[in-house]
Structure formats: C-alpha cells, structure tokens
Amino acid sequence: MSHKAWMKTVPTENCDVLMTFPDTTDDHTLLWLLNHIRLGIPELIVQVRHHKHTRVYAFFVTATYESLLRGADEIGLRKPVKAEFGGGMRSFSCEEDYIYENIENELYFFTSQERQNIIRYWLENLRAKQGESLHNIHFLEGQPIIPELAARGVIQQVFPLHEQRILKRLMKSWVQAVCEAQPLDEICDYFGVKIAMYFAWLGFYTSAMVYPAVFGSILYTFTESDQTSQDICCVVFAIFNVIWATLFLEEWKRRGAEFAYKWGTLDTPAESIEEPRPQFRGIKRISPVTSTEEFYYPPWKRLLFQCLEFVLSIQELPRIIRFLPKIVLAIIVSACDEVYKKIAYWLNDMGAW
C-alpha cells in the first residue's frame, strides 16, 4: 500500500502537519525527537501513531488557537484590521489582538495555510544545543534539527495536509467552473499569495491575449494576396503588438499592486533582511554589520570551485595538473551516479502513487 494512505485517514481538524518516518525507525529515535519537540516547542500538540498497513510511524502535529496567535505575532503574520481601527493590513500583535477582523472566531481567523506556515516555522527553527547527537549524527550548536534529520533520511516526509472541505469547494468554483472569474481570494487563503498571484497573472494574460488574436484574425481575413498588402498588414500588426505589449505591462503592474495590497504583501520586508533558511550551515559568529549572532560560511569554501576552474586556464602548468579538476569531477560523478539513480527511482514511484 502506498505511503500516501496517510493522507486518506488523517482527520485534518486535529492535524495540520504530518511528519512520517521510515518503517525501520527505532523507538529511541522517535522518543528523542518527540522529547526535543515537546521541550523546545511547547506550543505544539504532537500525537504519535502507527499505520498498520505501511508499518510507518508518524507525528500528527497541531497547535491550540492561543499558541497560533503567539506564533502569528512571532513571525509578523499580516492580518486585516477592522474598519473602525483604520482598516488595511497590519502585522499581528497579541497586545492589540482586538483590532483584527474575526479575532473572536477561532475557526476562521487563521486559514489552513497560515496555521501550517506557523507550525512549519516552529519546526524548522528547532535548534540543537552544543554536543547533542542522535546515533551517528552530531549536531552543531544552533543547527536546525528537523531539516538535518530529513536530509539524513531519519525523517521521511514533513508535509501539510489538505482540507477536503475547502478542496471540494474550490473544485466546484474553480476547476469545474466554465466562463466564470477565478476565486482568487479563496485561492490565496488556501494556497498562499504566491500561488494566487501566479493564477491571477495567468488569467490576466489569457484574457489580454484575446485582443491580438481577434485583431490578427481580422487583419488576416481582409489582407489581399499581393505582397504589398501583406507587407502593410505586417507593419500594422507589429505596431499594434508594440502598443498592446506596453498597455499589457502597465495594466498588470497596476493589477498586481492591487492584489499585493489586498493580500498584504505590498510592503513586506525584503528577503535580504529576513532570517536565513534553516538548512544553511556554518559557524556561529557576531555579525560585524548588525552586531547580532549569525551563522557564517567561510568564503574560501565558496572560492574553491572557482580556483579549480582557474587552474584549467593556466597553460604553463603540467598537463596532469591542468586535468586534475576534470579527474576529480569524473570521480565525483561516478560516485554520485548510484545516488542519483535512487533519487530518480524514488521520484518515479512518488509520481506513480
């Protein structure tokens, strides 16, 4: 039976994120990680279950409404403000929670996507202490635990669960609908701003393509067969395309800004000042710019491959030294061939499921 059998048996009302383990996982590993999650992230509610068909253990992860509110404050989640307090979007604050729309409604204040983002943020930022280890895995101080265990294969998958009730509603109003506007707000609430913005652009682009298609068809119909007439029509159509492309670009800038303002991403901070991804590895140091603690990756490691490429360009060196990078590359490719093959098989099996 496929490992995706989990997705058909998990009640989404009691679980936001599912974490599965290989069927060979021992009890010590499960208890070690469970204790670290419960001590490091007390906001989370974790239940351990075992699937009798796949023989896979899994952690069912969720959180209480009060914990999610604190998490929204921690990550600066932007939520709509009531009209009497100025309206618009603002980063959530527990101290002023009364100013936000639907704050009294625990079922509808957070979308499933927002709940899962908060929980994922907590899980990815569970960090190891100095000297901690699990079997043959030795963690660096401050290293994210769960991304490292996932990379080592200790954790099989960490993924959010779909909410069947909302999926059925989207199936009717979006997938099965004909000649109706896309429910972009519902798409944004469920899948997030990036997905909603993509489909907003795709719908706008499809609609905008009607104009050059209609104009080009009319122009082609009334064009005579002589070369002069065809050349004139080509010039006219080219001018039309230049004007259309300019108007299309400017209109999308305006439409995209409206969506960004409506969905609260117009003035979000740039990625450069956000925290680095949890998978980033390095040594801890005090940043000379911000004077705060950060992970630092030595520049010499980044320059290593550039130096190897530089060796190839030096003609005066002995032939064997100039070919040394190629030899190293051939050895690495041969060593990784089996790994890539296993990944390809795994991806193929996942697609078959």
Overview of the structural elements:
It is a multi-pass membrane protein. One of its GO terms (cellular component) is plasma membrane. Its main location: membrane. This protein is α+β, with helices and mostly antiparallel strands and 353 residues long. The chain has three domains: 17-161, no CATH class; 182-263, no CATH class; 284-351, no CATH class. Helix content is 51%, strand content 11%. A hairpin with a 2-residue loop joins strand 6 (133-134) and strand 7 (137-138). Helix 3 (65-75) packs across helix 4 (112-124), helix 7 packs antiparallel against helix 8 and helix 9 runs antiparallel to helix 10. The radius of gyration is 27 Å and the shape is extended. The model is unreliable at 1-12 (pLDDT under 50).
